[in-house]
Amino acid sequence: MEEVRWPVYFLAWVLGLTALGAAAGALLFPLGGLLFNADATLLQLARRGMRFLGFIFFIWAPAIGITACVMRAWRKKHPPPHAADKGG
Q: Is pTM, for the whole model, over 0.85?
């Protein structure tokens, strides 16, 4: 069961960061459109922002997910010295 945890953890990071980027784009692009008096509707700006920032976050998400998995595995294999003294 231990082997199944890491792909799920990685997938959670990738999907979570991509969703975060899409949500940020859906909020920020309409605000930018209002600031700069864009010709597009708020819905069009939100869709464009979701696609754009969702894609940008998706580009970076796998690298961040792999790094988070490696850091978690390292911490599990090498606990801090004070935690080992306390027994867990």
A: no
